[in-house]
Amino acid sequence: MNAPIDPKLLERTAALQGMGDSRLRKEDARFIQGKGNYVDDIKMPGMLFMDIVRAPVAHARIKSIDKSEALKVPGVVAVLTAEDLKPLKLHWMPTLAGDVAAVLADEKVHFQMQEVAVVIAEDRYAAADGVEAVIVDYEELPVVLDPFAALEPGATVLREDLAGKTEGAHGKRDHPNHIFTWESGDKAAADAAFENAPVTVKERIFYPRVHPCPLETCGCVASFDPVRGDLTTYITSQAPHVVRTVVSLLSGIPESKVRIVSPDIGGGFGNKVGIYPGYVCAIVASIVLGKPVKWIEDRIENISSTAFARDYHMDGELAATPDGKILGLRVNVLADHGAFDACADPTKFPAGMFHICSGSYDIPAAWCSVKGVYTNKAPGGVSYRCSFRVTEAVYIIERMMDVLAQHLNMDKAEIRAKNFIRKEQFPYTSPFGFEYDSGDYHTALDKVLNAVDYKGLRAEQAAKRADPDCPTLMGIGLVVFTEVVGAGPSKMCDILGVGMFDSCEIRIHPTGSAIARMGTITQGQGHQTTYAQIIATELGIPSEVIQVEEGDTSTAPYGLGTYGSRSTPVAGAAIALAARKIHAKARKIAAHLLEVGENDLDWEIDRFNVKGDETRFKTMKDIAWASYNQPPPGLEPGLEAVHYYDPPNFTFPFGVYLCVVDIDRGTGDTKVRRFYALDDCGTRINPMIIEGQIHGGLTEGYAVAMGQQMPFDAQGNLLGNTLMDYFLPTAVETPKWETDHTVTPSPHHPLGAKGVAESPHVGSIPTFTSAVVDAFAHLGVKHMVMPHNAYRVWQQLKESGVAL
Amino acid sequence: MGKQIVSVNINGKKVEKAVEPRTLLIHFLREDCQLTGAHIGCETSHCGACTVDLDGASVKSCTHLAVQCDGSELLTVEGLAKGPLLHAVQEGFYREHGLQCGFCTPGMLMRSYRFLQENPNPTEEEVRAGISGNLCRCTGYQNIVKAVLYAAAKLQQTEKVAA
Questions:
Q1: Which helix H or strand E contains A692, and what residues bound it?
Q2: What local confidence, expressed as pLDDT, does residue A199 receive?
Q3: H or E segment at A700?
Q4: A793 φ/ψ sector (left φ>0, alpha ψ -120 to 50, else beta)
Q5: From the CA of B160, how many Å to the nearest CA of chain A?
Q6: How far apart are CA A160 and CA A179, in angstroms?
Q7: Is A708 a catalytic residue?
Q8: Backbone phi, then psi, for A625, in 5-degree steps?
Q9: What is the reported pTM?
Q10: Radius of gyration (Cα) for chain B, nearest Å?
Q11: Burial class of residue A464 in the structure, from the number of CB atoms within 10 Å of its CB (0-12 exposed, 13-18 middle, 19+ buried)
Q12: In this structure, what DSSP letter does residue A162 have?
């Protein structure tokens, strides 16, 4: 370790552009020249366009559908309704949550903008004309929008298709609008902690419904070839292999004759995990018509009908000693899942990983319960960088920590430091049974507090609070979160029965370059660059010549896709281990070529040296050629490997976020003065790309906390479902981000790397709320419901008597 | 609805096609001309993913009819590079990691291309305002701002060398 570093070795290491290198992206060349290949760029011979007739009301019986006028529209080829899907048993489809969802509304519609019929035409303009011409007669029914009211006795029953079913996919249903109740932790222990605790606090914390709103909407081009009998579908899917299996099961076409391809995807953010009715209808239409059928939704359809995020009504409780040591945690959640439970989750976790809600703290007793409810709204719940409900989990614990600190008149940094899991406690088993892999929260917190001069900020805040004429309120938000990413161990985690492993296949070519494919699928996170970096370091081949591909089910190994920040933890591990299989074979070949024993070789960056004589070596390039040219006896020719990785555990990255806001007492407008984000995701593959993930995630967090919402009126109309109102910040609104990091590797991961992409979203949202509420803390305000837009903050200013 | 002949100069090449009067410029470019770099991200003219350069101005092509462009000069992202030589804005986005999924990128590039002619030496705040018609979901804008400033510096340098 102390030997002087040879510049030649450094040069050879740098030439690889491998692990830890902020190398520029291989993806960029095509994207900056308009040569990406997104779904709507695809044009196939004879391709038709599909558009969807959607429900104008939230809850109604369909009395009749008249297609006749639509069929007269020039260019319209066909109009399909639930009647046409019934013979194929495709008017309903299974969901990832174990429920079913209507593909095309049959007897009734369950939410506004629901799919009722589809029009297929020669181009999208004619299809849109056709949609206008379809006449649907509705008989309106009472709507159910409030999840609390949904569970009242005698509430309007939404899901008549489930009549008499008292057992759902996740246990007993005790009301027609009740989906599931899921619990975790030790209730008796938690209750006992609360009974004896000297201090208890309780707060209702609502996490509003928002939408991931990727800039590219959902769409597909389905192409059934009646001659070959095979189906090819280009699709905006974050899990194309899973889609292939599901499409095969539903259509009866053997999986080997179904090819699903995710090409370049213009952002996913969890919106593109599930299967939407539009995909199913395009596939059916293509099978019926024997031609390719393209479906591309509009923005309004995307926001209104595809997977929303959050909508958790959480009652949080903390029990503690008077000096702020936490004794117990209880959380009760009412989860609004909309009309069908299509919430994307591992099948055994209907509330995702919500039971990570004990956070970064050593809490001896904890219990949580989540009750899911049907309402007349679009399906969804899990999406938008949530890591399977970790957003909600982190929000509740971090809000409750602030509530407790305020109740005890303790500093919010101090109360956190007091309760942190100490670094020597890892691996740490949480009261909910998670085994946190590694962490060093105290060091990270100190780093952030020092970087921003926390004491100075508090002094400034105190001075401002003392001045009744100060035109602004100053708030300081602090969050210390623990993420859980990398689903996951197959004994716990599966998607519709498929264990949540992932995979990689690497093939070294005779001349030393390589092709590698994985079972994940990037939507902008830079896999084609970073995956190559992992292989570059493992095998000593420059990442420049390692070609990475994902998304084509006919070529890539089976994987579960990209969501839940699982690519680095699961596929990243598979990549390293596949490369190590190649490395082991390469060592055998090198030993043969150099006529020494395998143990007489040292691996040095890109070559095997004979120990003690570095003039005798074989580079990986030499070895690749030899593997095709003169394979040693007993070894197969060629040099390649596959690895399917079933992770032993999740990875648990963490972060410390601090935000300072100044609120204008005249307008309620909140200005983010400073946002400092420290993330620790263990070993860092490409710092430049991590930073980009952080910037994007923090910006989403700003959007969610400060402006995004999906309000419904009393009739169940979704309001603000276009960019006219749905808040997406531009460069002007978006704050400047400061980023920092520490490195606490995951001990069980082959590279020590943890996932990170969702951390900034998960962590930043409670940080903004913490800052905004902190601005009112001296006035006795304990919590404010997001979004913290000017109007709502101004209402708080009025209520607190400090509006100017 | 009868079709009309539209004659435009796109990326230095004359294109003549018959289109319906209601055809949006973005669909004309993407579907009739196979220039699929420009994208569609909304239907309310906010996102700017469809931004192209029309007769010396940044225009959201989803909010313009193809027939209105008869006789016009159009530049799209496909026309920015001169042969193998990237334009400074393209180089800036690449060097500063100003893109992730790449969906907003063509519109961002076309806007930045025009913006730097409007304001060759902008401040960071001016860049942010200058690209405020363009939404991005991945980058948080910070690296896009750096990319535009990179391009500004590069263009100034090129001018100096030329002078």
A1: helix A687-706
A2: 98
A3: helix A687-706
A4: alpha
A5: 26
A6: 13
A7: no
A8: -60, -45
A9: 0.98
A10: 16
A11: middle
A12: G
DSSP state, residue A25:
P
- Identify the pLDDT of residue A3: 61
In chain B, residues with a C-beta closer than 8 Å to the C-beta of A695 are 139-143
Residue of A47, A215, A722 for testing the chain B interface, max B β-carbons within 10 Å: A215
Nearest chain A residue to B100 by CA distance is: A524
Q: Contact at 8 Å (CB) between A289 and A226? A: no
Q: How large is the C-alpha radius of gyration of chain A?
A: 28
Q: If you measure CA to CA, which chain B residue comes closest to A37?
A: B36
Distance of alpha carbon A423 from its chain centroid, rounded? 27
- Report the Cα–Cα distance between both ends of chain B, in Å, rounded: 53
State the pLDDT confidence band at B159, using cuts at 50, 70 and 90: confident
Counting beta carbons within 10 angstroms of the beta carbon of residue A169, is it exposed (0 to 12), middle (13 to 18) or buried (19 or more)? middle
Residue A238 a catalytic site member: yes
Report in angstroms the alpha-carbon separations of B137 from A269, A340, B128, B161.
9, 28, 15, 37
Strand order in the sheet with A546-549: A546-549, A514-518, A502-508, A639-645
Q: Which of A534, A574, A540, A538 is nearest to A556 (CA)?
A: A574
Q: Quick one: pLDDT at residue A1?
A: 44
Instruction: Give how far B124 is from chain A: nearest CA, Å.
Output: 10
Cα angle: B45, vertex B50, B52; to 5 degrees? 115
Q: Starting from the edge strand earliest in sequence, which strands make up the sheet with A607-610, in order? A: A601-604, A607-610, A613-619
Mean pLDDT in each 10-residue stretch from start to end of chain A (804 residues)?
76 97 98 98 98 98 98 98 96 97 97 98 98 98 98 98 96 98 98 97 98 98 97 98 97 97 98 98 98 98 98 98 98 98 97 98 98 98 98 98 98 98 98 98 98 98 97 98 96 96 98 98 98 98 98 98 98 98 98 98 98 96 97 97 98 98 98 98 98 98 98 98 98 98 98 98 98 98 98 98 96
Q: The tokens of A441 are what? A: 């929260």
Rounded Cα distance, A197 and A558, in Å: 51
Strand partners, A479: A657
Whole-number Å distance between alpha carbons of A109 and B114 = 48
A386 is known as an active-site residue: yes
| Inter-chain Cβ pairs, chain A and chain B, closer than 8 A | 179
Distance, in angstroms, between B64 CA and closest chain A CA? 16
DSSP string, A299-319: HHHHHHHS-EE--EEEEEEEE
Question: At residue A222, what is the residue type?
Answer: A
Which residue carries 């493992």 as its tokens? A538
User: Structure tokens of A637?
Assistant: 């020719």
Can you give the pLDDT at residue A800?
A: 98
- A678 pairs with which residues across the strands? A656, A740
Mutation to test the B interface, candidates A21, A27, A31, most B Cβ within 10 Å: A31
The two structure tokens encoding residue A537: 């370091």
| Residue of A213, A525, A689 lying closest to B137 (CB–CB) | A213
Model pLDDT, residue B93? 98
pLDDT of residue A2: 53
